Amino acid sequence: MKIPELYDYLVRARRDLWATLETVPDEVLSRPMLDGDRMHSIKDLIAHTAGVEDGWLHYTVLQDTPVEEGFPALKDAGSGPAFAGFPLADLLDYWRAVEQSTLAYLSTLTDADLERVIEDTPEEHFKLDGLLWHVMLHEVRHTAQIAALLRTQGIRPPSMDLLFYLPNLKA
C-alpha cells in the first residue's frame, strides 16, 4: 500500500469517527480521562492528532506556514491539555483544513520525492517516505485511543480497521 492509498483510508475512517464524535455529549469529549502531560481528554487527542500532521507537513517537510495559523485560538492554546473547552466543531474544522492541505500536497508527490532526506534536527535526518508513514501511523494509534476511550464511556465507536475500507475483490 502506498502513502496516498493509506491516506485515503484515513480520510474515510475519519469521516466515520467524526460522525460518531458529533453524537457524543460534549461533557464526555471534554472529560479528563488520561493522566498525561499533554493530553487528558478526547478533545486533546483530536487537536494533537491534527496538529502533528500539520506540524510535520508544514514545519518540517514544506518549511512553510502551518494550517494552524488560520486558527489563532487553537494555536494560542499550545500543546498541553487545553482543548476541553473548545467546541468540537472548531477542532474538526481545523482537522478538515489540515486534511485538505495534506491532500493537496500528496497530489503532487512523486516516488522520487519520497526518497528526499528531510532534516528534523541537525542530528536527525529521515527519508520523506518514513516521515509520512510516521504521521499516518501516529493517527492510527491516536484514533484507536479515542475509540477505546469512547468505549470506556459506554459509547460504541465506528469500526475503523483497514479491512473495513479495503475494496472487496470478489467478482
Question: What can you tell me about this protein's structure?
Answer:
The protein is globular. By secondary structure, the chain is mainly alpha-helical. It has helices at residues 3-21, 26-30, 42-62, 72-77, 88-106, 111-114, 128-152; strands at 117-121, 124-127. Strands 1-2 form a two-stranded antiparallel sheet. The mean pLDDT is 96.
Beta-strand residue percentage: 5-15%
Helix/strand order, N-terminal first: HHHHHHEEH
How many strands, what sense, and barrel or not for the largest sheet? 2 strands, antiparallel
Low-pLDDT ranges = none
- The coarse silhouette is globular
Query: In the CATH hierarchy, what is the class?
Result: Mainly Alpha
Tally the beta strands.
Answer: 2
CATH topology value: Four Helix Bundle (Hemerythrin (Met), subunit A)
Q: Any idea how many domains?
A: 1
Number of helices: 7
Percent helix among the residues?
A: 55-70%
Structural class: mainly alpha
Terminal CA distance reads: 21 Å
Mean pLDDT: 96
The CATH architecture can be named as Up-down Bundle
Rg, alpha carbons:
16 Å
CATH homologous superfamily caption = dinb family like domain
Widest β-sheet, arrangement of strands? 1-2
Question: What's the gist of this structure?
Answer:
The protein has helices at 3-21, 26-30, 42-62, 72-77, 88-106, 111-114, 128-152, and strands at 117-121, 124-127.
Features:
171 residues; mainly alpha; Four Helix Bundle (Hemerythrin (Met), subunit A); two-stranded antiparallel sheet; 7 helices; 58% helix; globular; DinB/YfiT-like; metal-binding; DinB
